[in-house]
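Homework help board

Subject: predicted structure for assignment chain

Our instructor gave us this sequence and asked us to write out the predicted structure in token form, then describe one feature. I got the tokens but I'm not sure how to describe them. Can anyone check?
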Amino acid sequence: MKIAFSKKVGWILITLLVFWDALLTYLGGSESNPLWKPIVQTYGINVLWVLIPVTLGIFYLATKILGWLIKTIDKISEGEEIVLTGLVLVFTTYDLYITFFLRSFGWLGSGSHYRIIALLMVPVIGYIIFTEIVRRKNK
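My token output:
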């Protein structure tokens, strides 16, 4: 049983999600991500299009490093695919939240961008549990 997206599918999805996030921010006219907010305030909203490759580069490095750790420590051959699938799940949850629910709930009832971190962890924890169950069944 397949437990992760292929690298090709994963990178296509994460690229589309990053573009969608940038488009939503661009149309909204302001950045609320505390990592990018100072850059956007300094250089303007159009810098988002330059930050897309930076974001994808950060995701690439994270995928390579964490994928290597999974291969080395857990002895799972598709470590990078698992990390990439986790990123896709987190970013999909985030984009769905900012697309459909942010206006209704704010940052989960507060002005803090960090409140959403707990929401983002739910699909990843579920995916990790699913992955482990499938791995144990296949042994």
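Reply (TA_rk): Your tokens look well-formed. For the description, you could write something like this. The chain has a mean pLDDT of 87. That's the kind of observation they're looking for.
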